[in-house]
Amino acid sequence: MIATHPAGQAFDAMADTYDDDFTQSHIGRAQRSVVMQDAFRILHGRRRLLELNCGTGEDALRFAENGWKVLALDASERMIACARVRRETAGTKENPQFRQVATEDLREIAGEFDGVFSNFSGLNCVRDLAPVARILAEKTSPDSPLLLCLSTRICLWETAWYLLHGNPAKAFRRWSGRHEAMLQGMPVDVYYPTLNTLRTAFLPHFRLRRVRAIGLFVPPSYAEAWIQKHPLLLRMFVRLDAVFSRLPLLRVLGDHMLLHFEKSGEAV
Ligand SMILES: C[S@@+](CC[C@H](N)C(=O)[O-])C[C@H]1O[C@@H](n2cnc3c(N)ncnc32)[C@H](O)[C@@H]1O
């Protein structure tokens, strides 16, 4: 029997509503579309893809539909169950392969991969990413790209939003680098590493090539009800993100940051 990771248990309780709450939301779609545009470009020509913290399988299914062979992992039993149902609904049986494996237990998976993908903050639930980087280096072919989307340490939107709503504790919750979040009443430790911490954790195996903000002007998902009343504003924010998301300071001040690493070729 698989011992369920604490974050996996907490996400179990969110799995059945996750797609309605986030995947299908205006904000979720706007943020995901930017990640996936970069993913398709950067992972082009790579065949065997490893996805970490895949959730309900939205991205894994898109990769599989577009020719990638995908092994997609998540700590949550319920998220993996939802992903398998989606795969059946899509009419495919074996690709993507979904498995309940926590990122901390990566060593137990077999196979070699040409690229690694992680979307929307699953890696923020891992306390130390240096051992994860080491195992990924063992399991990837030379020059493999890693495309990782994590929550930032400082999100300008979040700070402004919660200050305006009179909630300073939430406004600054990320700033210390660690926060105990309550997910459906269950506590989960969430870590907010800085860009430099991440760069160091992945060295010497992976070299950081590019970084961009995801959700710099596009707000975090808790602003969904507000943004639904302002569709033109959302369109404008999407355009502003396209212009400003790669600028040196701004790229780490969005809701998420998207990091593109490449295997450095040094001995593992
Ligand atoms: C915000 S969801 C993102 C899901 C998906 N990647 C997406 O783009 O919609 C975060 C996911 O990370 C998973 N997760 C959290 N901690 C994890 C861990 N230590 N190992 C593996 N998965 C984890 C959760 O179960 C959840 O499915």
Summarize this structure as a short list of keywords or feature phrases.
7-stranded mixed β-sheet; 9 strands; globular; 268 residues; two-stranded antiparallel sheet; binds S-adenosylmethionine; alpha/beta; single chain; Rossmann fold
Summarize the structure.
The protein is an alpha/beta fold and 268 residues long.
What does the secondary structure layout of this molecule look like, with pairings?
Elements: H1 6-23, H2 26-42, E1 48-52, H3 58-65, E2 69-74, H4 77-89, E3 97-100, E4 115-118, H5 130-139, E5 145-151, H6 156-164, H7 168-171, E6 178-183, E7 186-191, H8 195-202, E8 206-214, H9 224-228, H10 231-244, E9 256-263
Parallel strand pairs: 1-2, 1-4, 2-3, 4-5
Antiparallel strand pairs: 5-9, 6-7, 8-9
Helix pairs in contact: 1-4, 5-8
GO biological process, one term: methylation
Domain Methyltransferase: 50-128
InterPro entries: Methyltransf_25, SAM-dependent_MTases_sf
Question: Would you mind describing this structure in some detail?
Answer:
- This protein is α/β, with parallel strands linked by helices and 268 residues long.
- The protein has one domain: Rossmann fold, CATH 3.40.50.150.
- It is built from 10 helices and 9 strands.
- A hairpin with a 2-residue loop joins strand 6 (178-183) and strand 7.
- The two termini are 32 Å apart.
- The relative contact order is 0.16.
- The model has no long low-confidence stretch (mean pLDDT 95).
- S-adenosylmethionine binds at residues 5, 7-8, 11, 23, 53-55, 58-59, 74-76, 79, 102-104, 119-122, 125-126.
- This is Methyltransferase domain-containing protein.
- One of its GO terms (molecular function) is methyltransferase activity.
- InterPro entries: Methyltransf_25 (IPR041698), SAM-dependent_MTases_sf (IPR029063).
